[in-house]
Amino acid sequence: MKRLLILLFSLTAVVVAPSVSSIAHSEESSFQVASAAKSAAATKEHLDEMVNGEVLKIDNDMLKIVIKHQELRCLGMPAMTMVFNVPDRTFLEGVKEGGKIKFAAQVAPHGLLVTNLEPERN
User: Fold this and answer.
1) Which of 42, 11, 33, 38 is closest to 111 using CA atoms?
2) pTM for this model (two decimals)
3) Measured between alpha carbons, how far is residue 82 from residues 29, 53, 56, 92, 122 in Å?
4) For residue 30, pLDDT beyond 90
5) pLDDT at 44 (0 to 100)
6) SS in 3 state form for the chain?
């Protein structure tokens, strides 16, 4: 239970990050994030599934990206707009605001983490 509370707090903290909070809150609430975290364990079969998304904002300094995405079955989350962490700047190479991407994500100690990201090629 303690781990779940820590996870829920981490997810909520990511959603209200000051640099992108107005975008992140436009289509979700902390209740949705909490509900999605609870159902994540039941969707392990979709762990590496790539989903379509649109990049709304990139913060190179904070290593964060705001993505309007389709359903993330691996996390039990419906389609929405969310803030994700990226492991390093190489993940953001070739990615532009307004661009289409395919990506995979997972829950990490400090929020949601993009684990794979491919810009859509024209």
Assistant:
1) 11
2) 0.64
3) 10, 10, 10, 16, 25
4) no
5) 52
6) CHHHHHHHHHHHHHHCCCCCHHHHCCCCCHHHHHHHHHHHHHHHHHCCCCEEEEEEEEECCCCEEEEEECCECCCCECCEEEEEECCCHHHHCCCCCCCEEEEEEEEECCEEEEEEEEECCC
